[in-house]
Recover the amino acids of this structure.
């Protein structure tokens, strides 16, 4: 298992407060060293901000904001930044995202598909679809869309990008893991479904305790709230690290064929 990201949540505001970004860099570097000392490979450090609409005086400033934060983050060894979501009550906030995507390489954005009361907003669906369609040709490989996500009822505090965003004044941090290999190992070694369902939570809880111990020490040392670990199990090109391999270890001959849904249900029930 690896740490995909140490994600630091804060609000540099506008004009951007360089000291806030510097503090984020100091914390994430110290956190990286602490988790490495605990035996974990740390792949990236990331900075997640509140929705840009909550502090920008006008949406036309979004590309400049994104470039400024991206540049500062790189100076302080932060790999990626998220400037948060556009929301349905500000349709113009969606339109500004394309320009910001074009102007940056390591800045992430999102658009909410849902209203504050959890209802689907059809105008927001169309606006997100437009962003996805227009972002695809920005680079020849189409990977600009990796930096945009359409969200439905996603709360602040998730450490995974592009969904990550902050809410509130006080800084916080969370851990995103690359943990599908735990499921692969647990399911391959299990003789029965019951054993598989017991082995995976046990493995996750073992690592969670170890991660939390280090995280609590960091929180106390820096006065930054620890908001938890996300053990979402992702797909991956390497079979030994892929959620698909774990599902096939439950008896599915090839993911997508008969039994795939049942295997997914067993996995979901286990975690």
């Amino acid at each position: 298992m690896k740490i995909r990201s140490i994600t630091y949540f804060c609000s540099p505001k506008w004009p951007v407060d360089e000291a806030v970004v510097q503090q984020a860099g100091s914390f994430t570097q110290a956190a990286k060293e602490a988790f490495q000392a605990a035996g974990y490979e740390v792949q990236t450090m990331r900075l997640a901000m509140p929705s840009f609409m909550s502090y920008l005086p006008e949406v036309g400033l979004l590309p400049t904001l994104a470039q400024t934060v991206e540049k500062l983050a790189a100076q302080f060894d932060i790999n990626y930044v998220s400037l948060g979501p556009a929301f349905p009550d500000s349709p113009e906030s969606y339109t500004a995202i394309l320009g910001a995507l074009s102007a940056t390489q390591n800045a992430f954005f999102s658009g909410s598909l849902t209203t504050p009361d959890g209802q689907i907003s059809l105008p927001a669906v169309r606006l997100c679809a437009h962003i996805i369609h227009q972002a695809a040709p920005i680079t020849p490989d189409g990977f600009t869309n990796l930096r945009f996500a359409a969200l439905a009822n996603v709360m602040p505090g998730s450490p995974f990008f592009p969904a990550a965003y902050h809410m509130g004044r006080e800084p916080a941090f969370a851990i995103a893991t690359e943990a599908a290999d735990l499921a692969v190992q647990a399911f391959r070694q299990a003789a029965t479904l019951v054993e598989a369902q017991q082995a995976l939570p046990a493995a996750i809880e073992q690592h969670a305790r170890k991660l939390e111990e280090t995280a609590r020490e960091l929180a106390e040392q820096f006065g930054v709230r620890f908001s938890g670990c996300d053990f979402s199990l992702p797909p991956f090109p390497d079979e030994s690290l892929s959620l698909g391999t774990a599902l096939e270890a439950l008896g599915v001959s090839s993911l997508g064929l008969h039994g795939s849904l049942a295997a997914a249900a067993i996995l979901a029930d286990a975690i």
Residues 193-222 form the longest helix (30 residues). The first strand starts at residue 2 and ends at 9.
